[in-house]
Amino acid sequence: MVIMDTDHHGVACGRSGGRWLGFGSLCFLLALLNSANHGVAGNAAPPTPSGGFSLPIVSNHDTAGGLGQFDANLTSIGPHIAPVGWPLYGVLVGVGSGQTRHFYKLGLDLVGDLTWMQCQPCVPEPRRRRRRTQQGRRQPHLRCAHTTDGFVGLNHGVLAGALSLSRHPTSFLRQLTARGLADSRFSYCLFPGQSHPGARHGFLRFGRDIPRHEHMRSTSLLFTGPGYGQSSTYYIRIVGISFNRKKLNGVKMAMFRRDLQTRRGGSVVDPGTPLTRLVRAAYDVVEAEVAADMHKQGARRSTVPVQGYHLCFVSWDHVRFPSLTFDLHEEATRLFIKPELLFVRVNQHLCFAVVPDEEMTVLGAAQQGF
């Protein structure tokens, strides 16, 4: 479990029964406390007695036959994942009322500033429905795009738009703050896709009813200050990486540092990014460890490029798959990523679900699943 608190600039992390935070064993949780003075006022229903509301998060991929179906000493893997570049999850939202309600899947976006959807025509259609507003109130900033450049191709037609949860004044999160809903705290839990109809789906929860427990640890959020400006993105401070819980000496804290002059680099959390992306210098060290460990166990590295991935294997029978741990600024806080979230099957290949990035590090959706 991870709780982010923007008022106190902290992230609380925890795992029942230990000091390790497991993205793979616990829901990923963000609790964001934002002041309302930069929001946009709008007309809204009062909050529920519990102080919030939920939206379902649905998976766009399938993990039938995945690593998670075996026991803890996993030596085989057969996961299937959406093609590279696909958004792994979408937030299901209803637009309209009564019989005119339509449901859309929007991307969960912690980086972008606008909430919008592609629709033809817009819902509600401005030419056919009178716009009604309460006197003295302004409509929230939800826009409809009749044409988009690149979005449909990039998301393979899976999503109808984006739901912004950044700290920017125009984001959906900030608008909730301005309208007095749920104290602008939100949490989300991601469940990988399943093939059977009764599979659990994740949720996006707005509200103050966020669980806490004794094993929580905390780290800092980096929103303001030199190199960050007034960033609306959720930066964290990574200081190192452990492989099978052993620290990698070749991965240095400086690799994750944000450049104060160019405002590039750093590490962010974003479930809208399908795979975790490691800054190149750190990735090269991690890849070498993964490749050496797999080779030692008899796995054979593929010489055929697999689109979207950097390290793949064509033979992996009887291999015990490794884990990764992101060491955060505070010594006691670690983000543990279990083996079954680190590898995916792509046709006849097994690929490492972490890829290099030339600029920064992003903790992506594939490594945030339950």
From TrEMBL:
GO molecular function per UniProt: peptidase activity
A GO cellular-component term linked to this record: extracellular region
Biological-process GO terms, alphabetical: proteolysis
Highest taxon of source: Eukaryota
InterPro entries: Peptidase_aspartic_dom_sf (IPR021109), Plant_Aspart_Prot_A1 (IPR051708), TAXi_C (IPR032799)
Annotated Pfam families: TAXi_C (PF14541)
Residue intervals of the Xylanase inhibitor C-terminal domain: 234-368
Keywords annotated in UniProt: Hydrolase, Protease
Record protein name field: Xylanase inhibitor C-terminal domain-containing protein
